[in-house]
Design a protein that fits this description.
Layout lengths: L4 H15 L3 E4 H8 L7 E6 L3 H11 L3 E2 L2 H10 L2 E6 L5 E5 L6 H7 L2 E4 L5 E4 L2 H14 L5 H14 L5 H11 L2 H12 L1
Parallel strand pairs: 2-5
Antiparallel strand pairs: 1-2, 3-4, 4-5, 6-7
Helix pairs in contact: 1-3, 2-6, 2-7, 3-4, 6-7, 6-8, 7-9, 8-9
Length: 190
């Protein structure tokens, strides 16, 4: 029985690896890794899971997770999301399937293997991609989420000297969040 959130992350990562799909943990898992740690009620990840990998993936998770096969297949065909809900812990895992060449795909290509515990690494979004995704979610949420803004500020604070600012500015312009990126950078300097 797996109930520890770290064990659940490792389990999910292993399933994606076993079926040959790339994945990257994003959202609060990534922002906690690069900035200020915080509790979360769900796990977000991006994957290039394909229709051909769907059946073995579902078979591998269905004993420990609620998974709806129709939702998985629809998400894979339409480049949207589906979720898994862990039976024992009720932890929800949202799996986003990005369209090719979009920002989500970019975060998959740039993913980095990072230690999740003393014996295992998993793929986590880079600090830059996490900042950009959080700013994008901030806008999509009406520009009022203190949690998203705090996550971005924490990453900027802790990763300031390591960030690729050219990459950040390029993708911020593409995502139309360049004004917010500049605002959070200005706040970090003061």
């Amino acid at each position: 029985m797996i109930t520890n959130p770290i064990e659940i992350l490792i389990y999910v990562a292993r399933v994606f690896e076993d079926v040959g799909a790339r994945y990257v943990f994003v959202g609060s898992i990534a922002s906690s890794h690069h900035g200020l740690p915080r509790a979360t009620n769900d796990v977000d990840l991006v994957s290039d899971l394909s229709l051909g990998q769907a059946a073995p993936f579902i078979k591998a998770v269905e004993k420990d997770f609620y998974v709806n096969e129709t939702s998985v297949r629809r998400a894979l065909q339409t480049h949207h999301s589906f979720n898994l809900i862990h039976f024992e812990s009720s932890l929800k895992v949202d799996v986003f399937i990005p369209p090719p060449n979009g920002f989500g795909w970019q975060s998959l290509l740039r993913r980095q293997a990072e230690p999740i515990d003393e014996s295992r690494k998993v793929f986590i979004a880079t600090a830059e991609d996490t900042v950009l995704a959080k700013l994008d979610w901030f806008v999509k949420g009406g520009g009022t989420s203190e949690r998203q803004w705090s996550d971005v500020s924490g990453i900027i604070k802790f990763q300031r000297d390591k960030l690729d600012y050219d990459y950040l500015r390029e993708w911020a312009a593409r995502l139309k969040v360049d004004d917010l990126l500049q605002r959070v950078l200005d706040e970090a300097r003061s």
